[in-house]
Amino acid sequence: MAADQTEPEVPENAVGRRVSCNGERATVRFVGVVPPTAGLWLGVEWDEPTRGKHDGRHEGVQYFTCRYPKGGSFVRPAKASFGSDYLTAVRRVYHFDAEAVLSEEMCISSKTLEWAAFKERSIESLQTVLLNGCDVNGPGEDGEIQKTTPNVSLLDLSSSLLCCWDDMVAIGRQLEHLEALQLSFNRLRLPSEPVSHCQAFSNLKVLTLISCELTWTEILHCAPMWPQLEELILENNNITQLHRPEGVLQELKCLNLSKNPVDQDSLLNMASLPRLEQLLLTETGFSNIRFHNAAAGGRTAMFASLKNLNLARNNITDWNVIDELGKLPALVQFCCRGNPLASSDRNPQTANQIIIAKLGRLEVLNNSKIHPQERKGAECDYLKMFGEEWLQARGKSHLSQEFTRQHPRYMSLIDKYGAPEEGEVKKRQPFALKNQLLNITFIFVDGGDRRPVEKKLLASMEVQKVKGLLSRLIKVPSADLRLSYTSAKVADREFDMDSDLKTLLFYAIDDGDHVLVRWL
């Protein structure tokens, strides 16, 4: 470590302050001399835990401590920026925008505007202020924010150099219209008396705190400051154990806990939030949930308002999890992409059909609207898919508890569509049979004198590929083709092949069956 020839002045309260060094952010943990070198050093703890070289120890002396073994460094003050206040950053960023607007206005209208007045009016009218990465370190002179940017409703101070919530409070209490605040990638010390700061955020509806190294306990500590908060985004923090929010966050409608290692048993503590409509839990390791206060097929009183649940990219493998979610009284939108949940034929479309059939009130699955005909097809296929198990179970005095547990909606679907007959249930074939060849006779119902054609096809072939083959054969667009089939095992019955993405194996087509071909 070599000394710089010139050393800039270091603030008296530098320890605990935030600094920026070549675009990387850190917290100052030490200010002083580090022998044997001369001159002043800043000991910093980087936000990126592997950015440094040590944990605050140099040549056997512990100058400061870090949470991570490679989280610390010594830097010269000349290499570190302590940032600037809010208004300095606003004028620096929006001066150029105003100048561009002035140039365009003068070009169009040829009017002469007094520059200083135009600039102040432009800044005063701002409703959105974006200062992401602008190294804001505090509010500046008291009262000046309220005079200069009184109309701000959305403020982005992500990746700033604010070091504590008290500084944010000093900014917020001068922005009485503030409704949305982004503070991602910051490290803010907790306020001592958060309940005394609620006036600073009295109209705040949306708060984004991505990658702020926060725990749920710290969130609950701060929550009294946000009495009207409706949306809280907490992606990628240190949130594990969730505790019941007593008397806080009661207006919350959307909670994003994605990319946090959340303890799933403690997740039920969020069920007490009375207005919670949307819950995002992507990449949390979620694999299971149980609502023990409701029987199979019943309704839970928990998460009473929850309409939208996102469990994408997790570890769900058990179909009973979907049955448990079916107990939620208001759930209409669900996303579970990227989970190892699979149907017996390993076809993602079949898995989606099972989800639709199990969640009877669902309107949107994986961001796609479920149309009435799609729901009907999914529910009818579900009846056939598990019909063999039901036929075996119904021979007893009552359905087995195991069947009811695995298929809590099955009896309600029978009430809706009627019971499947023995000939139309889809016999479960071993997965190894997917490559077997089937001899199929195609009968062209709308083909006039066209003679039947026999083909050998793989059982794993999808209906859309069968249509493509037929399209080339009879010169009819595949989109116009309608297929069904008959089997010698079931006399006088015709079964629709109504999903292009299903396989012949899924439809339980056997060797020697007839496929009936119609077109528009």
Describe it.
The protein is an alpha/beta fold and 520 residues long. Among the domains are: 18-79, CAP Gly-rich-like domain (SH3 type barrels, Roll); 285-428, Alpha-Beta Horseshoe (Leucine-rich repeat, LRR (right-handed beta-alpha superhelix)); 431-519, Phosphatidylinositol 3-kinase Catalytic Subunit, Chain A, domain 1 (Ubiquitin-like (UB roll), Roll), CATH 3.10.20. The chain contains twelve helices and 24 strands. It has helices spanning 86-109, 115-124, 144-148, 165-172, 216-222, 319-325, 348-358, 372-385, 387-393, 401-406, 410-417, 463-474, and strands spanning 18-21, 24-33, 40-46, 57-58, 61-62, 72-75, 84-85, 128-130, 136-138, 154-156, 180-182, 206-208, 231-233, 254-256, 278-280, 308-310, 333-335, 364-365, 368-369, 437-444, 453-458, 481-487, 490-496, 514-519. The strands form five sheets. It has an eleven-stranded mixed β-sheet, covered by helices on one side. Strands 21-20-24-22-23 form a five-stranded mixed β-sheet, with no helix packed on it. Helix 7 (348-358) packs across helix 8 and helix 8 crosses helix 11. The longest helix is centred in the N-terminal third of the chain and has 24 residues, at 86-109. The radius of gyration is 32 Å and the shape is elongated. It starts with 17 loop residues before the first strand and ends with a strand. Residues 96-118 and 430-434 have low confidence and may be disordered.
